[in-house]
Protein 1
Amino acid sequence: MFVDARRIASGTMIEADLCIVGSGAAGITIARRFAAGGIRTCLLESGDLDFDWDVQDLAKGENSGHPYYPLDACQMRFFGGNTNAWAGWCRPFDPIDFQERPWVPDSGWPFERQELDRWYSEAHEVCQLKTREYDPAGSVERLSDRRANLLGFDPAKVEPTIYHFSPPTRFGRVYRNEIDRSDSVRCLLNAHVLGVRAAVDCRSVEHVDVGTLAGNRFRVAAKVFVLAAGGIENARLLLLSNDVAPAGLGNDHDLVGRYFMEHPHTKRTVIALDRRVPIGLYGLTFYHRGLAARLALPPELQRTEQILNYSANLHQVYYGHETPGWIAFRKFIFSLMPSRDTDPYVRFPPLDLKRLTARDVWHIASQLDRVTVAAFLQWRQPLRLVRKFLLESKSEQAPNRDSRVTLLHHERDAFGLPRARLAWRTLGIDRRTAVRGEEIVNEELHRLRIGRLEDLPESDVEGWPRNLEGGWHQIGTTRMHQDPRRGVIDADCRVHGMENLFIGGSSVFPTAGAAPPTLTIVAMALRLAAHLNGVLVAQRPAVSVRVRPAETQQVAAPVLSRAVTGAPPRAAPGVGGT
């Protein structure tokens, strides 16, 4: 059931068995596991059921490392989290990603890939994937399309890897009714966690302080707490919670916020020798069929070259595809796609100039002839009219202590709390992996007489080209390791030294791999939910979620009171009758 936290009286104490902070892929996945049964769960969401610019402002912060997205653009603060803007790429991490690699400092997970296999299987269902088959030859056979062929790369140098596309699953929409109908889960909307409050001995969490932009303040107490607010916000909340632990919870060894990782994305033009080569499988030609392939480097080659995991797409470029008019037109088309209508940075009404700018309209109108030709070529994809190819590298980043999230004390949010500062930094092995990966791909493209890469573009920072960007993949900051001197959490995702505080999401990943993180986030969340179920059942959970007023104040929250007792609530602001 959904409850608007703005209707909860200040001083109220809400008591539950399990409290989850954040309703993205991890938070919703965990909550769904407790949607039926006797374990009462309180799910706290900072935003509402839809996007709100005032709430999104709370995510603002500062970037001080490599150029990165504005922090209030890459952290969605409404129900569903970043799945509201997810493109849907899915692939499990590779076995080598879990292994300790001598040439990659701080690599290795506490368990092997096999530990996640059963959870990956279920994660495919959660992400609404139609198949779990990643065999390249089998994928080509299923497509039965002349454009879907595997290029003849030397398998010792370059191998194809299959990616599947979720619709993409908007967790906040697809699983909304399940949360709404649950007698065990209460989702508090517009509930901003201000701090995690530990006992005096700092061995357990007693409650979280919650506030709303309407001004009311209350607390949520539980037997077990899970932070699932994203790679940046998880670290920020731990650092803000410094009333008992001066450096922040879980930060005895100065690890919280460190090891922030992304997947560095760069692009290089392939000068085509033969434009008639069907390379559609390696681009987005079969996005509507839920499948694409990337170029990858085999694990043995990674070991020999002592580089990281690497992947790349190969896109066909037609006439008009690089004009401002086509880029603006694609933006307009994306805004009309049902799968994109929760993405606030793509979704827009045609006349909303906050999103479809006057410049966009001018580019489309002034270049309408090129836009029309480009659209036709994109639809038909005639091989003989390909102008060139584009290689888009998306490689792994190594763990780096100096790539980190800290607090920005001179800038504060609407609650007076320090905002986050992100310093995204890379190591030499990161750039060397991208360069060497492109060299190997270039050798194979030339051998197959497909083309050759243009010269390396002009570098900007630490050898990276100016087109460097990330993928909204905020990984690390609360990394997993059995040794508390090397990780914030243990193999069960429990914060070292604390009995009842757990963390979910990609912030727990010790390494980033080359695959997008969402499928692994869901698999890890399912694994964590199973562990929490065992912990809570052993503790003989309370009968129900309870609301207890402060000693000197009566509860003035009829909506919440009825929600807790199971009676139908009145419509509350922002809840939209759900």
Note: DSSP finds 15 helices and 21 strands in the chain.
Protein 2
Amino acid sequence: MQDFQEQDFSTSINIKTWKKIFKYLAPLKKYIILGVICVLIIAAFDAIFPLLNRWVIDYVEDSLIEGVPLDRSILYKFGASFLVFAILQTIFIFAFIKFAGTIEVELSYSLRKSAFEKLQSLSFSYFNNTPVGWIMARLTSDAKRLSEIISWGLIDMSWGLMMMVSISVVMFVINVKLALITLAVTPVIIIISIVFRQMMLRLYREVRKINSKITGSFNEGITGAKTSKTLVLEEKNLNEFDRLTSSMRSKSIRAAIISSLFFPVVLILGFVGTGLAIYYGGNYYLIGAISVGTLSLFITYSTQFFDPILQLARVLAELQQAQASAERLLSLLETEPDIIDNEEVILKYGDFLDFKRENWEKIQGKVEFKDVTFRYNEDENILENFNLKVDAGETIALVGETGAGKSTVVNLICRFFEPTEGSILIDDVDYRNRSLGWLHSNLGYVLQSPHLFSGTIMENIRYGRLEATDEEVIEATKLVDAHDFITGFEKGYETEVGEGGGRLSTGQKQLISFARAILADPAIFVLDEATSSIDTETEMKVQKAIDKLLHGRTSFIIAHRLSTIVSSDKILVVRDGKIVEQGNHHELLKLGGYYYRLYTNQFIEEKTQKLY
């Protein structure tokens, strides 16, 4: 299985990373403000309750010392006040949960939508180089993790900070010395938090990286199940998967141990602070420096003060864990496509999200390569000074050895890649001066293994032209002789094709893909080994469909079976990125060169197979 090498990310909290992520919170400003207001009020209530307790304790103590009977009306007022604050706090807790939940859902939606939009704009080279599992992890687990931690973490941090500030202010107002003693352990907690934070950040980043590889391994294991079984790779796959999961398990355990140590350490230090408040506060009470209510207040506040520290530490730890997710998601969101339209083209023709179809010229189908050189790597030319002129409506076949450059030629025509040097003209205009959407909407591309989407046959054909009626879809299937086998299914056109068209044969999928192409009515058509993986009988049907499909259209055919291209207007023999022979079928046979040898060998082989 492919071992996708991810980029190295930073090893400390990166403010720039979080600023970029927080930009997605801008539309949710209203909910964030309301949520923060709610938790600030809740924190204020949390600080008020001990003050009420102090007041009633001191009142009862003073009454007992002075021998004055308790005024029950005052106690009733205290109880009523306590109840009112409790009810109000409950209401604000409900409100903040609602706002935080809304932020979580909306942020997750925004991140996934932005990521999916980015995927629509990326060039084909990105999908060639990036495992599907890695992309899926960004859209699912990383987006979910970020939305959860940011939505609840922001509100928890607001509550914690407000709680600590409120408690500190009240304690310093009441007794500065006792406040300083109680909070003496705070700097130690901060130092410990920084140390643990760095350790946890490193470990959780490693865990997330391995998790991405595991997700990719899952994907390859599922999509490549047939290949794995036929090559008896089950044990190899299992061993590799076990290696990844074992590594993730050991690193996760280490991270869990560090995390489990951190919180008890902070908790113990919090108890030390409470112990200091009890010891020194008790001494102050004994010498009459503070009241019993004040002592109770400091003890309560000492326990309350360190709970927000634990919450802040938890949120920081989660943010540290999530930074790896943020970095990976941003690496997708900030990836720039290799092939883009310039600003002038976008202004005239629109982009992939907003096509200006009214400005799109009709394609006639004339194609020309002018001194085209193309390379994937700096030191290796796939095509070199390649020249080719194709008139509108011509059928061009490309033959040659594997790696000769045939697929590169059609990929350049489709602008899946662009020339490194030279230019490609369509209707005498450099296709870079027109939009990708304009070109791709006029292209039909049928692969050796056509892809069908999950859904019905009717839906899959209608992808060729979404506004097409049922009658137009059926007419397209009749043109490629697919109607009969479709109506032979129990549910006819409403038959589910399964994932990737798995419920249909290769030939049936191919005919459906041709019907889809007919419905789209492209001006330029590309067939890439479209008949190499089907039986002879099905090939005859497909060949008839091809003849109808290519009529009147500029077309490029990459063919393995030369018998399927004998009627092409021009056949190009490509070797090492150059055209070494060209002409129609009869002209090339007369040359007696590479094409002649290739064709006669195939002809003899096919005749021999028929005899046996």
Note: Residues 38 and 92 are 5 Å apart (CA to CA).
